[in-house]
Amino acid sequence: MASPEEQEWRHSLSASERFDNIERIKASLQAAGPDVAATAPSESFLLESRAYEESHSRAQYDEICRVVGLAAPALVQPRTEGHEHGQPKVTIGTYKDCQLIAGGVTSEVYKSGDKALKVIVETRNIEPHHPQREAKILATLKRPCIPLLETFRDQEQRFVLVFPLMPMTLGDLLEKGPPPLPRIRRIFRDIFTALRDLHEAGIIHRDIKPSAILLESPDGPAYLSDFGTAWHPTMSAVAEPLNGKILDIGTSSYRAPECLFGDKSYGPAVDMWAAGSMLAEACRDPPKPLFESRQAHEDGNQLGLILSIFKTLGTPTAETWPEATHFKTPPFQMYQPIAGHTWEEILPDVQADFRELIASLVRFDSKRATAANALRHVCLEDVNVWE
């Protein structure tokens, strides 16, 4: 963990000063030629962020930024052998030198210059994944949801979605340790703004998790991505009617309890549970998921998550979760009563106002805070002021 002296110089460094350094590094990259210039925006953020994270003083940070600015073209000189990390570069549509950077059950993600290409590789029996619906939903959204730049069919007739390439995710950031509170404020204000806009349109994201939050830099701005399983009130109505939604949604530790107990009428509150769990993770030192869960393909993953939730928050009752009395599989009398813990015990080292917001989001009943509520909470105020 950074010393008080290190934290002090970082807090005294304004966002505009950091931006100026990023711009100087980017200008140096852009002057090096078209091959390097293509990735200048993302690479300049990465180089400045490394200087910010690794420097022990303001003087060291300034010197590293100066040296990096001079040496930047050499640091990111493109490879000529056509391989990176052992993966061959390919052409996808009109995009050349595409490098595989991630893969999943239904898609692969490639980077090409400053663009990210999501290539759909599986189209059979993939509900709730629906790439065309994802594209249509994205076309209706605005920042801080990730902008969709274009879609096309590649040489193999695979559906491709093109996005701006972002250098990191919230998951990447949390792997480095707990972010300072001003950074958490900025990032989560963007997240809750995106969720507010989604929910006002009747859309449910259904897969909120740290890897779905893309960052231009460690300080943001943040963009909500990964809309492959999003539910839309009209576009999804045939496959998933309002009261008959698919329950197999979300990712491991971030799945809301109503989905675990058969409530097919769930709504935007499932996103808020996940966002609250993610906020708790970001505030912990070291960052750690609030609830434990096995991977989706492992036996007992759902039961393990249920038990982790109950051991943390306590077993719900008809009084604490009245809505669950109408679920297909209500949780009452199925599990041995567990007392659970107070939020002061769960998050003892987290600032009180953040703990209060998390508690309002991670709760069983219908009083779970909305995204609009979260944006009005005191702990997300003054996001433009660095402490």
Automatic annotation (TrEMBL):
InterPro entries, A to Z: CDK, Kinase-like_dom_sf, Prot_kinase_dom
One example of a Gene Ontology biological process annotation: regulation of gene expression
Q: Decide whether keyword Nucleotide-binding is in the record.
A: yes
Instruction: Cite a single Pfam family from the UniProt record.
Output: Pkinase
Q: Which GO terms describe its cellular component?
A: cyclin-dependent protein kinase holoenzyme complex; cytoplasm; nucleus
- The enzyme's first-digit EC class, named in words, is transferase
- Kindly indicate whether the keyword Magnesium belongs to this entry: no
**What's one GO MF term for it?**
cyclin binding
Tell me which PROSITE patterns the record gives.
PROTEIN_KINASE_DOM
Write down the chemical reaction(s) this protein catalyses: L-threonyl-[protein] + ATP = O-phospho-L-threonyl-[protein] + ADP + H(+); L-seryl-[protein] + ATP = O-phospho-L-seryl-[protein] + ADP + H(+)
Tell me where in this chain the Protein kinase domain is found.
95-380
Q: What is its EC number?
A: 2.7.11.22
Note the superkingdom of the native organism: Eukaryota
Sorted keywords for this record are:
ATP-binding, Kinase, Nucleotide-binding, Transferase
What name appears for this protein in its UniProt entry?
A: cyclin-dependent kinase
From which source organism is this entry? Plectosphaerella plurivora
